[in-house]
């Protein structure tokens, strides 16, 4: 599900070692859920809707929608809970109410807050010019200093100042508030939640960035380790990147492709430059063009990395992410990490559950594909973590004292609590690639021949085994036997484990490779291989899992960036070269009798665009530039290749 697909679903009504390694019980699910009609009646009966234009310091007006509890008064004052979004604060008009509860979840709606939704600059009904991942003002400029500008010049602004100015207006113009503000957002709204933290308004007490877009070149929606995420961005920018000469109330599209087979569609599309053909973007999509024009980690991307600005954080922070989030897993983990490292003593907690993008907001998340979690993990999070977080910091209601990290183990289906993330008790171990497809925790012998395969851009390795029009959201847990059967995918696996093995934290790929070309991509996958004997299987919904090669984590690296993301370098043909990069964190127990598997390949299509395997500008490449290449992966004593695993007791 793309950023757009998730957000429109949400707007349409989708709901949303202190105690090291202590399992957390999950609550019993509700017996029934109210209907949409009942929800609409509830909103009108209990909330009054206000539509307002709030003027920012530079004169731009931002369209803002408020839902105020009808019983608000001198003896009953409520805090604000705000979401700033590029995806529409609508419905618009004071007689048009949200179909679901006015809050981001049923639990928060029932608790009652003054809920605020705002179209960010340049989106929907707000004035101004939209900027992709608005660059933050320099950290040396305090809010007080930013309010001083030379006479006749507009005051500088960013998302922090827009949030500050909005809060200032709300406090002064909405009666019967208690003087406190919280901010929550999922995905792109998660970025705006994060962006409220630098030089935050004193009334801002609690912020929850959830699956926040954070650094689009390094690991979020646009690129991963420099490799362009073709499938998602082609779909997303078709909706999101339509020119907006004036405010609008609903989405339009630039074009309406309906491919029956996404793999074949993008293969037929050819080089990525063809996406600007007359039947597709036709040079009308500004953000799409920026993504392709800036194909190194240049000033454009660096300015849009919010992490260095996360200093001096005063509000309490609850960062939320999902282990199966195909879009912003990087963002959740690295937002938490940046706040933690740059703000000693800050109140900053992490929650990572068995969720896809924003799945914690759904009424029920008890299973995903063939996986069953044994309880409604989304409801558990909302009732025991999100609701108490905002109630405590905005209403002085109840306590909020969970562990530093509340994290779901995807191998045992248990919630775990840790005093830090990654857990401090982790011990690095390397699973080494070896001859005869072996994977072992001992370094390879001196004279092993490299493994090799032919990487052909005309026959790229698919990212999923099925055929579909959109991204298969289950690819992050998919059985990898479809890939293991291909000659251009290397497979290495351990013997069956004698004991459980728990991995907690970021993974590190360290490969020695060569290519007959001058550039190449490398995809490394960590896989949990279930025993083939049916009697050893755990209870699970869905089809039989015997022998499944369940994907635990995978990541791509565009080889030209192995030394520098700012200054890419070509490969010397056929020369052994080291590539090291990080895969996103996991918490997964490989059970006794299971095997660890590592797969290595050089394409992941059409999730990732094809590499022509020549050191040329990929956005400008022609069809003739895409060449086959012989890829070798070395695993001898002088060139040990492996995957670094943080193993915990």
Report on the structure:
This protein has helices at 3-12, 36-46, 106-111, 143-146, 159-173, 188-195, 230-240, 262-269, 286-293, 299-303, 329-342, 377-395, 481-484, and strands spanning 47-55, 61-69, 78-85, 114-119, 177-186, 204-210, 223-224, 227-228, 316-322, 348-353, 367-368, 371-372, 405-409, 414-418, 427-433, 439-440, 451-455, 490-493, 501-515, 521-529, 549-558, 577-590, 595-601, 629-634, 642-648. The protein is α+β, with helices and mostly antiparallel strands. The strands form five sheets. A ten-stranded mixed sheet has the order 1-2-4-3-5-6-9-10-13-14, sandwiched between helices. Strands 15, 16, 17, 19, 22, 24 and 25 form a seven-stranded antiparallel sheet that branches. The longest helix is centred in the middle third of the chain and has 19 residues, at 377-395.
Q: Any descriptors?
A:
2 domains, alpha+beta, Rossmann fold, ten-stranded mixed β-sheet, 649 residues
């Amino acid at each position: 599900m793309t950023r757009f697909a998730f957000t429109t679903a949400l707007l349409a009504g989708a709901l949303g070692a202190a105690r090291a390694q202590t399992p957390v019980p999950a609550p019993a699910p509700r017996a029934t859920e109210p209907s949409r009609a009942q929800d609409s009646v509830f909103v009108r009966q209990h909330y009054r809707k206000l539509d307002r234009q709030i003027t920012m310091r530079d004169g731009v007006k931002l369209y803002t929608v408020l839902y105020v509890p009808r019983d608000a008064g001198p003896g009953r004052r409520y805090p604000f809970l705000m979401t700033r979004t590029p995806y529409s604060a609508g419905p618009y008009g004071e007689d048009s109410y949200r179909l679901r509860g006015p809050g981001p979840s049923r639990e928060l709606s029932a608790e009652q807050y003054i809920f605020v939704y705002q179209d960010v600059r340049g989106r929907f009904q707000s004035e101004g010019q939209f900027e992709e991942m608005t660059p933050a003002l320099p950290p040396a400029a305090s809010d007080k200093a930013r309010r001083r500008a030379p006479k006749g010049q507009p005051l500088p602004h960013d998302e922090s100042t827009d949030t500050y100015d909005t809060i200032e207006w709300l406090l002064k113009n909405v009666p019967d508030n208690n003087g406190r503000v919280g901010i929550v957002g999922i995905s792109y709204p998660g970025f705006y939640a994060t962006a409220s933290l630098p030089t935050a308004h004193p009334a801002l007490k609690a912020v929850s960035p959830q699956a926040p877009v954070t650094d689009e070149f390094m690991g979020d929606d646009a690129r991963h380790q420099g490799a362009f995420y073709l499938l998602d961005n082609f779909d997303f920018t078709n909706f999101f990147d339509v020119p907006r000469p004036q405010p609008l109330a609903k989405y339009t599209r630039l074009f309406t492709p309906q491919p029956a087979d996404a793999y074949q569609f993008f293969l037929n599309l050819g080089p990525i430059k063809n996406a600007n053909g007359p039947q597709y973007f036709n040079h009308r999509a500004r953000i799409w063009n920026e993504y392709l024009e800036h194909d190194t980690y240049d000033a454009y991307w660096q300015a849009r990395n919010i992490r260095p600005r996360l200093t001096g954080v005063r509000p309490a922070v609850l960062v939320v992410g999902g282990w199966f989030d195909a879009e912003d897993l990087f963002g959740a983990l690295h937002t938490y990490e940046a706040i933690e490292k740059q703000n000693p003593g800050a109140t900053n907690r992490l929650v990572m559950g068995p969720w896809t993008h924003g799945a914690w907001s759904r009424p029920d998340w008890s299973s995903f594909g063939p996986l069953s979690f044994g309880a409604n993990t989304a409801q558990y999070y909302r009732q025991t973590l999100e609701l108490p977080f905002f109630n405590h910091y905005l209403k002085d209601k109840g306590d909020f004292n969970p562990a530093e990290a509340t994290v779901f183990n995807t191998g045992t289906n248990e919630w775990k609590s840790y005093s830090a993330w990654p857990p401090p008790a982790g011990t690095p171990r390397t699973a080494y690639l070896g001859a005869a497809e072996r994977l072992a925790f001992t370094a390879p012998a001196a004279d092993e021949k490299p493994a090799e395969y032919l990487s052909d851009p005309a026959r790229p390795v698919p990212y999923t085994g099925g055929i579909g029009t959109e991204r298969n959201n289950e690819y992050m847990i998919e059985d990898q036997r479809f890939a293991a059967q291909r000659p251009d995918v290397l497979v290495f696996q351990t013997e069956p484990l004698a004991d459980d093995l728990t991995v907690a934290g970021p993974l590190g790929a360290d490969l020695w490779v060569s290519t007959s070309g001058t550039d190449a991509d490398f995809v490394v996958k960590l896989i949990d291989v279930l025993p083939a004997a049916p009697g050893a299987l755990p209870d699970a919904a869905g089809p039989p899992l015997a022998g499944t090669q369940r994907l635990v984590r995978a990541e791509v690296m565009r080889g030209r960036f192995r030394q520098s993301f700012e200054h890419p370098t070509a490969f010397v043909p056929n020369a052994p070269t080291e590539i090291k990069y990080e895969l996103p964190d996991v918490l997964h127990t490989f059970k006794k009798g299971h095997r660890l598997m590592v797969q290595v390949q050089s394409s992941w299509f059409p999730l990732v665009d094809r590499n022509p395997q020549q050191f040329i500008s990929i956005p400008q490449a022609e069809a003739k530039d895409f060449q086959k290449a012989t890829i070798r992966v070395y695993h001898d004593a002088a060139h040990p290749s492996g995957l670094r695993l943080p193993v915990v007791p």
